[in-house]
Amino acid sequence: MKVNVNDLQKMVAKGVRQLGYTGEDAQIIIDTLLYAEMRGNNQGIVKIATGGIPRAEDLEPFRVVKENKCGVLLSGGHSMVTTAKATDKAVALAEQHGVGVVCTNHTHTSSGAVGYFARRISRAGYICFMTVGNGSFAAVAPVGSAEPKLGTNPLAYAFPYDGGEVVFDNATAAIAFFGVVEARLKGEQLPEGVAVNAEGDPTTNPNEVMKNGKGENVGGAIKPFAGHKGYGLSLFVQLMGSAFSLAGVAGANEEDGAGTFILAIDPGLFAGKAEYMKRARQMVDQIKSAKPIAGQEVVMPSECGDRRAKKAEESGEIEIADGVWNELCRFVGES
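and the corresponding structure tokens:
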């Protein structure tokens, strides 16, 4: 269905405030959700009505745990809000020392579209790499098993170049958990090869993966993307977003919550920023100059999503699945 962008913004704001968030914290969550929704990313409004955002009173208090010359450890608060603060800290450290490392723990698992945060660092003029460990929430089975042991464990990077930026945001799972939730709400099947049921058999039925439409546990799991390659990458993402960040994992240190690892690098660390920006632009131009296959186009990561967002902003309308929009309306009491 077509939804007016202004109506979307109002409904998201109402839903977030209904969960108890106010002021700057509410605005960060609203901006993160809208960033995803406007780009067709499944980390958007579906989170509001399906438990992806905890009530404000259920959060642990935010605090700075440790700080030194090139690193900061933050704890507590809503993951989107704490991650936004972490990006600002990482940039400040990179400005001073060339590199900034900031980690978070004791946050709620739902970090939202991590590309939103990586882009904050890129737009400040720095290179970003970040990973998110999903804490006690396990949705992905290691290769050779149907038992969830890993989070969907997203990673993101972003870098500026002369005249633009590139942003990559991807779960190491074959599909994000909220992609499964969206499929349930839409009444759609999952893509082939992304999930298994409780017996380990391939399934495209979202009601056979972790929970059914009634919210009952049914077993099953999401698979890593690209088999053992995605599994290996997921393991590293979880290491940096849990063990290194002093956050938890399913079955160990669960009380330490979810964690995030953020690295900001001054692109002029070795040759000066102007030289880096020129060379990064040359790299992008060289890749985009590749001869396209008939009917296709060579694009950079985030380019298609940014086009979708721009089109929605210009037209004032965005396409949202009926089931997802109706669930949000019911949650805020406007069904």
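(Above: one complete record from the training split.) The mean pLDDT is 95.
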